[in-house]
What does this fold into?
Amino acid sequence: MAQITTLAEFITERQHEFTYATGELSQLLTSFRLAGKMVNREVNKAGLAEDILGAQGSQNIQGEAQQKLDVYANDLFLRLLKSQGMVCAVASEENDDIVHFDNGGKYVVTMDPLDGSSNIDVNVSIGTIFSIYRRLSEGAKATMDDFMQPGSAQVAAGYIIYGSSTMLVYTTGHGVNGFTLDPSIGTFCLSHPNMQTPAEGKIYSVNEGNYFEFSDGVRNYIDDCKRQLMSARYIGSLVADFHRNLLKGGIYLYPATKKAPKGKLRLLYEANTLAMIVEQAGGMATDGTTRILDLKPTELHQRCPLYIGSKAMVEKAMSAGK
Ligand code: P6P
It folds into this structure.
């Protein structure tokens, strides 16, 4: 019978790989582990619970209608992160400004608590995306500089996908490992050790509704994918599209468009997180010209074009030019 390794056991076994004091990584990931289970419970019953379904009636900084589950997930992650005392501040898609805990904690977190939430009401997979950075500042309160670090400074990056099963996938810079939630025991168990994404793939993920908004180079690349009889797969939920391509090989593109010259996706809590993961799995992530992890952020919610997935496919998309 195959050995069962729980996420908690795995973190303990691999603690030595985490640059900083022992036990810190375990505490940091525990908040996401616990919140992931609680969000999973709400996601699974969203269709039934009137009080959790549908729009909250408010908008986030992106001007997007906040779904009730967005707000629930955001509040839950913030509460759990604050309670464990090692995170000093959080930048969340759902909060206009930095959420300060003023506890002198050594880490800061960026997160999209529930990405793709417009899909909640139609029962499509959604996800939580999170990154952990070591603070640069000293003292009780974090500063904006703590959040303006390049993605290459991340100490950990991960996502939780609430799909046909719920998985937590993360890296601390020593490979990528995936854990599937066994709801019967409420435990994440190692199901995808040392994930490596195929160098090539036959899947391309892009919103072709924007085709005439794209540059000539992007249109040429998309046309080439069609000529090669690739499969077009686009769920409209970044974590779900990314996860499928990570496992099967493929590329996800959200290029700049005329109406969104910097693309739609956010650098701090979408592109950077998934870029660290995909590079650790042997893949590649750029904004079309520059490695995502080398980009120097200037704003919390700044957007960037994103080309991410199998290395050979991202290179080809880049060579197709602007
Ligand atoms: P579009 C969801 O809002 C999201 O941020 C990602 O999860 C998803 O990949 C993308 O936007 C979909 O955007 O413009 O294609 O609907």
Q: What stands out?
A: The helical segments are 7-13, 24-44, 68-83, 216-227, 238-248, 267-280, 311-319.
